[in-house]
Write a structure and sequence with these properties.
Mean pLDDT: 85
Radius of gyration: 28 Å
Strand order of the largest sheet: 3-4-5
Strand content: under 5%
Distance between the termini: 79 Å
Largest sheet: 3 strands, antiparallel
Length: 564
C-alpha cells in the first residue's frame, strides 16, 4: 500500500495549505474505499461466482498483479556494452521515455519505441473498462458485461461509465430526466442538417450536427471561454448530458435526411431508446408508441456498444482532447474515426458476406475459399479478443427475441451454421478466429428495419458514453499531456534547392491525372474577350443565388468568374 504524506508535500512546497488538506482528504477517501472493497471481497467468500458473468472466468474478485507486478527490466545494449535498469511499475508497465537514455552515438538520439498501430502502447491509465482478450472478458467499471446486459439499462450503465459507480434510484431518475431535457436540437443545427444533400451518408450528417453544436455553445469552448473552463464539474456535466441527449435526435435527423420526412420531436416521457424509435416513426402519427421489447433489445445493443477501452475512435477522442479542444469537436473526431469501414462498418460487411454465401449448402465452399485467401470472412476475429467476444453471445440471444416479433431473417440460419462450422474447423480455431460483436449485430439492425448505411450511426449513439467517460477522465489525469508521438524518419537527409528551370520531372511521385468534369470543360472552352482581363468585373447580371446574395468573386461560383 502506498501512503502519501500530504503534510510532507506541504513542507516541500509542492502544495499549499488547501492543497495539502485536499490531498489528505483524497487519500483518506481512497483508503476508506479500499478497505470497503477488501471487506466486500472477504465477505463474498463462497459467493464470489454466484452471479456468473465475466468475472467467473478468472474465479476471483481480486485482480492478479498486472503483467506480473513491479520490478526492474535489466537490459544490455550490445552496441555499447552498457547495461540499463528500467523500473517496472506496479501496474506492469514501463515508462517509454526511459528508453531515451539508451544512446549509442550516431545522431545522439536515444531509442524510440516503434509501434505502428499502437499494438503494445498505453497512452493513458484508465479505470473505465477492462478487457482480457485471451479469456473473452469485458467489464465496465468492474461490472461484468453479461451482468449489465441482463440487469441494467444503457443510461444506467452510461452513468457508471462516466462517474464510476452505478447510480442509486434518485441519481438515476435525475440523470434520465436531465438527459431527456437536453434532447432537442437548436434550430440552427436543424437548418445546417437540412442544408446537406438528401442522399448524404448518415454518418456525415452526424458529424455536421456535432460540429454545428460546437458552434452553438461557445460558452463551453476552451478556445473562447478560457482553458480552465472544464475545471468546473457543472460545465463538464452540462456537455455530457447535452451530447448523450442529442445523439439520438441527431441520428433521427440523419435517418430522415434520406427519407425526405421530418422526425418527430423528442418525447421526454419515454425512455432513451423508446424516444429514439418514436422520433423515427411518429412523424406521421404522434400517437405511435414503439414496441417495448424492440426498445429493450435496442437498449441492450446500445449498452453492449457503449465502451470498449482504447479502440481507434476512443483513442482519437483522447488525442484530440489533449489539445484542449472543446468536447463537441473531440467527440466529432471520434465519430469520424468510427466512420471508417475498418472500425465501425464491419457489421455491414458481414451482411454482404452472408448474402454472398446465399445458403447453408454453400458454406463449405466458402470456408475453403477463405483458407485459400480467395474470400474474407467478416465478423470473425478481433484485434483484442483471442476468444469468443462476450458481446456476440448476448447479441445472438437478442437476435432471436427480435425475430420473434418482426420475423426471422433467413440469413440467421447461414450465420449460425457458419459459426458452427468455423468453430469446429481446426484452421480457424488454431488462429483464434471467433465471432465478434459485428457478426450478429447487423442481422439485428436489419431485422429492426435499419438500412445498412445506418448501422454505424447505431454504433456512434451509444459509444458517445464511452468517449465522454474518457474525455472526463483525461481532464483530471495528472499525467495528461498533449499527444505528440515520435516518428522514425527515413526520408532524404539534406538537399539543395534548385531553380525550377533546372529541375527534372519528379520521379518519386506526382499528382495523377485529375480529369475535369464536363461542366468544367464547358467553362474552360471559352476565352476572355479581347481587351478584357480575365476575372475583371463587368457589372454583368448573374442569376445564381451566390451572386445575388453578394458573394465575392470566386466564392461558390464554380469558376464562373473566369468566363467574364
Amino acid at each position: 500500500t502506498r501512503v502519501f504524506d500530504a503534510s510532507a508535500l506541504k513542507r516541500e512546497g509542492k502544495v499549499g495549505d488547501r492543497g495539502a488538506k485536499e490531498r489528505e482528504g483524497e487519500m483518506s477517501d481512497a483508503i476508506n474505499r479500499r478497505l470497503d472493497t477488501i471487506g466486500k471481497h472477504v465477505g463474498a467468500g463462497a459467493n464470489a461466482n454466484a452471479d456468473g458473468g465475466s468475472h467467473a472466468n478468472d474465479g476471483a474478485y481480486m485482480r492478479p498483479a498486472p503483467g506480473g507486478g513491479a520490478g526492474t527490466l535489466e537490459c544490455k545494449d550490445s552496441r555499447t556494452g552498457k547495461s540499463y535498469a528500467i523500473p517496472i511499475s506496479t501496474d506492469g508497465s514501463v515508462d517509454a521515455a526511459a528508453f531515451k537514455a539508451i544512446v549509442a552515438g550516431g545522431d545522439g538520439r536515444g531509442l524510440v519505441m516503434y509501434d505502428p498501430g499502437y499494438i503494445n502502447t498505453a497512452p493513458c491509465k484508465s479505470k473505465i473498462s477492462y478487457i482480457d482478450g485471451d479469456r473473452g472478458v469485458l467489464r465496465y467499471r468492474g461490472y461484468a458485461i453479461e451482468s449489465l446486459a441482463e440487469k441494467s439499462t444503457y443510461l444506467e450503465t452510461a452513468f457508471a461509465l462516466v462517474y464510476g459507480d452505478l447510480p442509486n434510484s434518485s441519481q438515476l431518475t435525475e440523470w434520465e430526466r436531465t438527459i431527456a431535457r437536453h434532447s432537442a436540437l437548436p434550430l440552427q443545427v436543424v437548418h445546417a442538417i437540412e442544408a446537406l444533400p438528401h442522399d448524404a451518408h448518415p454518418m456525415a450528417v452526424m458529424l455536421a450536427g456535432l460540429n454545428a453544436l460546437s458552434a452553438m455553445h461557445p460558452e463551453q469552448n476552451p478556445a473562447i471561454a478560457g482553458g480552465g473552463i472544464y475545471n468546473s464539474h457543472a460545465v463538464q456535466d452540462k456537455q455530457i448530458v447535452r451530447i448523450i441527449g442529442k445523439m439520438t435526435t441527431l441520428a433521427a435527423h440523419a435517418y430522415h435526411r434520406n427519407t425526405g420526412r421530418a422526425p418527430a420531436a423528442p418525447n421526454t416521457r419515454l425512455s432513451y431508446t423508446e424516444n429514439f424509435l418514436y422520433m423515427l416513426d411518429a412523424g406521421l402519427d404522434a400517437r405511435h408508441r414503439p414496441h417495448p421489447k424492440l426498445a429493450k433489445a435496442l437498449d441492450t445493443m446500445f449498452l453492449l456498444h457503449a465502451e470498449h477501452e482504447m479502440n481507434c475512435s476512443t483513442a482519437a477522442c483522447r488525442h484530440l482532447a489533449s489539445s484542449g479542444v472543446d468536447v463537441f469537436c473531440a467527440v466529432a473526431g471520434a465519430v469520424g474515426a468510427l466512420y471508417g469501414p475498418l472500425h465501425g462498418g464491419a457489421n455491414e460487411a458481414v451482411l454482404k458476406m452472408l448474402e454472398r454465401i446465399g445458403s447453408v449448402e454453400n458454406i463449405p465452399s466458402f470456408l475453403a475459399g477463405v483458407k485459400e485467401k480467395k474470400y474474407v470472412m467478416f465478423g470473425f476475429g478481433h484485434r483484442v479478443y483471442k476468444n469468443f467476444d462476450p458481446r456476440a453471445k448476448i447479441i445472438r440471444g437478442i437476435a432471436n427475441e427480435v425475430f420473434e416479433l418482426v420475423g426471422r431473417d433467413p440469413l440467421i440460419d447461414i450465420a449460425i451454421e457458419l459459426e458452427k462450422c468455423a468453430r469446429a474447423d481446426e484452421y480457424f480455431v488454431k488462429r483464434k478466429l471467433y465471432p465478434n460483436v459485428d457478426f450478429y449485430s447487423g442481422l439485428v439492425y436489419r431485422a429492426m428495419g435499419f438500412p445498412p448505411e445506418f448501422f454505424t450511426v447505431l454504433f456512434a449513439i451509444p459509444r458517445a458514453a464511452g468517449y465522454l467517460s474518457h474525455w472526463r477522465e483525461s481532464l483530471s489525469d495528472r499525467d495528461t499531456k498533449i499527444m505528440r508521438p515520435q516518428q522514425v524518419y527515413q526520408g532524404e537527409w539534406l538537399r539543395d534547392y534548385q531553380s525550377i528551370a533546372t529541375r527534372q520531372r519528379s520521379l518519386t511521385d506526382a499528382m495523377d491525372s485529375v480529369a475535369p468534369s464536363n461542366a468544367a470543360r464547358r467553362r474552360m472552352a471559352g476565352d476572355p474577350p479581347a481587351g478584357r482581363v480575365a476575372g475583371a468585373s463587368t457589372g454583368a447580371e448573374l442569376s445564381t443565388p451566390a451572386w445575388r446574395s453578394g458573394t465575392s468573386v470566386g466564392d461558390a461560383t464554380a469558376g464562373m468568374e473566369h468566363l467574364m
